[in-house]
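Q&A log
Question type: sequence-to-structure
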Amino acid sequence: MGEISLRRRHEPTVGVDVFEAKLGDEFLMSSLFTVAEIELARLGLAEVAGEALRVLVGGLGLGYTAQAVLEDSRVESLIVVEALGAVISWHERRLLPVSAALVADERTRLVEDDFFDLMRRDPRSQDSFDAILVDIDHSPRHLLNSSHADLYTVEGLRRVRRRLAPGGVFALWSDDPPDAEFEALLAGVFPVCASRVVTFDNALTRGESANTVYVARMDPTA
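Response status: OK
Response body:
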């Protein structure tokens, strides 16, 4: 997909050090804007009942979604699937603010794999999860790689559904506003679904920015 890079710089407008990940010349994420990544975990897990939760996160990035998952005391195990080995290495070398706590937590396992390919594999030979939380592409329409496109179809969403335990939740981060077409796809696959707009202050623009978190839940008796 391109060369992945991590940089640390000082942002004078807010007086803090900022960590940024880039793929080629494209910005992927910044430690200045983590509200929606954290809310992806919180909104998703808020819809899951019970204890001893098994969680799968697609996309490690700067680690804020995974760290927010671990803040829920009900979580028994967390698998984070990341396609780029360099990103896992950043955390194993404790280069990012949440890396030390994330890697040291015995509930966490960082796995180098393609999340999209994982969803295509036979679910009968794989574990099921109480929550699958995904933050990889910019949105269902703006993909990092064309090979990801089949996830955002009825069949792709059915593959995700087959990996969920009864009452399990699928949540997806998006940089775009709620997409009516994608909402309709979710509604055709999951009995309960909603789009949550997450707003946050943008120190660089001195205004407000927004992301979307899609949350879809299985029937507890399915």
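Response note: Residues 58 and 138 are 13 Å apart (CA to CA).
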